[in-house]
Amino acid sequence: MNTECVAMLLAGGQGSRLGSLTFNNAKPAVLFGGKYRIIDFPLSNCMNSDIDVVGVLTQYRPYILNNYIGDGSAWALDQVQGGVNILPPYMGQKGGRWYSGTADAIYQNLDFIDRFDPEYVLILSGDHIYKMDYSKMLAFHKKQEADLTIAVMDVPWEDAHRFGIVNTDEEHCIKEFQEKPEHPKSNKASMGIYIFSWKELKKALLDDAGNRESEHDFGHNVIPMLHESGKRIYAYPYSGYWRDVGTVQSYYDANMDLLDTNCDFDLSDRNFRIFSNNTSRHPQFIGPQAKISNSLICDGCIVFGKVENSILSHDVVIHRKTSLKNVIVHTGAIIEDGAILENCIVGARARIKGDAQYITDPADTTPEIHVINN
Amino acid sequence: MKNAVGLILNVDGEDDSLKGFLQHRSLSTLPFGGRYRLIDFTLSNMVNSGLSHIGVIGSHKYSSLVDHLGTGKEWSLSRKTQDLSILSGSNNYHIGRLIKVNLRNLQNNRGFLDATGAEHVLIATPNLVTTFDFRNAYDIHLKNDSDITLIFKKDDPLYHLKDNDLYLEFTKNRISGLHYKREHTTGHFFAEMFFVKKSILEELLDLSERTGDWDLMDMIKYNIDTLRVFGAQHTGYIKRVNCLENYMKTSMDLLEYDIMAELFMGKNSIHTKIKDNHPTLYDDLAQVSNSIVGSGCIIDGTINHSIIFRDTQMNVDSHIQNSIIMQRCEIGRNVNLNYVVMDKDTKISDHTTLVGKPHAPIVLKKGTVI
């Protein structure tokens, strides 16, 4: 078992900006691309990066997430000693408390990491869609003899003000941080993926825990503190597909990227596969009058209607005389005879009545995305 | 069903028409319905009925069976309370009529029977396409204190059979005769699933060994007066796949929504080995109707009245109808297929046309490249 680097995956966030998609479900367990859940991406990345120990920090509405992760075997994370470990908040001798920030969540699980005594700790979050071989980032971290390495990517200049921006020298050493700056000095945005040398991380978390002023957040507190104390912090340049799916619009757009032939994010690539926890379902039944184009459809679906530029999760039923265009339908939803849907997200097990019409003005190039749940 | 174990037999095709598919696998692992293997039906029916110890008799072509069943995890059979045993089969030879239940297979596995503490054995063939809850039949078996309870079906036009059916003759509710001809019977035929008391099965095995007749149905027939044989009726959809023509017809039955729903969308689902595939991508130019499609496909052509298994890729300007395309096939541009069955890993290059006949489709063997 490889314990040189242990991954800690922050999966406790509520994801309130995803609206009703996270009413009874943690953000990392929200469906993506039909059959996947967001957490499949970091977990599959771990698998593809030879990381054998992953701690998953859960807090908000964890049932679906816990159940989905199971014993981790879907991502080959079911080693006898290591594998995936779900880490909820717990009671100790002095009582217990919720995780109050990203750094606090890791701080409360120092014992867990100590058990494996790793050299490095990889911090991940459960709200990004991307493929990344973390072992390359780890090699970079070692080569730079860094205390902390932050994965960064170039974003369009006009979007830079929405991100945490880093300014580096030619050796990728980070000289300055700007959190959502009005006047960004660079377009290198932090992707929220960190590799710490374990000794430095442990020391920093103990210091941070003693600081009453701190909100115990990596981005706001721990990393600036390390920067001020002169630690070696490097930016690992990543280029490739990466999306934050924290809002309804960004979630919708990233899903629709899967239907865009010009987008280089390929889920069918056998060399770097994204795995998920599958259950047995019947194959798709496509009825005689069905019309399907440019769409992704999962097992268990029954389609009698028209589906265009849409994504259907498992067990979706599309009745006759229906029309779906630019729609994401989650597991088990039923679209009844005659319904017409455009530009919307249908929540899991929702039932859309036949007289429902969600139509947007064709002239509106950025229509608001409705989330329909019931 | 605490006091019963399940046993799934190994059978071979009744004629040579399926030979092209059976070079590297037995009939039990013939791919079916977009993602299944034939044995999934019998095995899932047993599991869904509450049997927790099941033995599967393999043929000499083991690897496909072992690969498919693994530890039985997908059928919930790899728990401490439930298990799956893969048993050794014998080479079956037959001259003339095929033996429905060949006791030679069971003779090899008396250890499995000895080891079980159960008093009843549920035996079934692996090539039945049906969903069936055995619990009701088991109650009938126990209530009548039967030695043997045969599950039967009233014949109907849906059930396409070769002339090897075994018809039952009843006296009151007890079975008093077995006939290979339908004449003078009520048309109720044996559905190749039955309960038998383990003690009776062992006696019959001893008798077989002495007489050299390995056909269990013969044994029952000759001893029908002394054995307590009863029947339990199956009223749902059931078909037996044993030749190319009824493989094709049974597959195409799934395109009738009601049959598909009965088999796959009821409370008890048919389990199979899970593959981790991306969702199927229907491209801009795809036109798919009246078909069953597995996951992991990339489709850019026209498909009508066909069954497409997992991981198939199909290019633009191609047309498939009335065909069965098994796993991981690749179909080039401007290909036309009608009444074709492609086994796994088959590739068809651009500008190819293949047209078979409804009762005699063209069969492309595993790994063929055209």
Uncertain segments of chain A: none
Biggest sheet architecture of chain B: 7 strands, mixed
Strand content of chain B: 25-35%
| Head-to-tail CA distance between termini of chain A | 45 Å
Rough shape of chain A? globular
Provide the low-confidence segments of chain B as ranges.
none
Mean of pLDDT of chain A? 92
Q: Alpha-carbon distance between the termini of chain B?
A: 51 Å
User: Major β-sheet of chain A, in short?
Assistant: 8 strands, parallel
User: How large, in whole angstroms, is the Cα Rg of chain B?
Assistant: 21 Å
Biggest interface goes to: A-B, 36 and 35 residues
User: If helices are DSSP runs of H or I spanning 4 or more residues, what is the number of helices of chain B?
Assistant: 9
Would you spell out the secondary-structure blueprint of this structure?
The complex is a heterodimer of chains A (374) and B (370).
Chain A: E1 5-10, E2 31-32, E3 36-37, H1 40-48, E4 53-57, H2 63-69, E5 83-87, E6 91-92, E7 95-96, H3 102-107, H4 110-116, E8 120-125, E9 128-130, H5 134-143, E10 148-154, E11 164-168, E12 174-179, E13 188-197, H6 198-209, H7 218-228, E14 233-237, E15 242-244, H8 248-257, E16 284-286, E17 291-293, E18 295-297, E19 302-303, E20 306-308, E21 311-312, E22 317-318, E23 323-329, E24 334-335, E25 340-346, E26 351-352, E27 357-358, E28 370-372
Parallel strand pairs in A: 1-4, 1-8, 4-5, 10-14, 16-19, 17-20, 18-21, 19-22, 20-23, 21-23, 22-24, 23-25, 24-26, 25-27, 25-28
Antiparallel strand pairs in A: 2-3, 6-7, 8-13, 9-15, 10-13, 11-12
Chain B: E1 4-8, E2 31-32, E3 36-37, H1 39-48, E4 53-57, H2 63-69, E5 83-87, H3 103-107, H4 110-115, E6 120-124, E7 128-130, H5 134-143, E8 148-154, E9 167-171, E10 174-179, E11 188-197, H6 198-211, H7 216-222, E12 229-233, E13 238-240, H8 244-253, H9 257-264, E14 280-282, E15 287-289, E16 291-293, E17 298-299, E18 302-304, E19 307-308, E20 313-314, E21 319-321, E22 324-325, E23 330-331, E24 336-338, E25 340-342, E26 347-348, E27 353-355, E28 362-364
Parallel strand pairs in B: 1-4, 1-6, 4-5, 8-12, 14-17, 15-18, 16-19, 17-20, 18-21, 19-22, 20-23, 21-24, 22-25, 23-26, 24-27, 25-28
Antiparallel strand pairs in B: 2-3, 6-11, 7-13, 8-11, 9-10
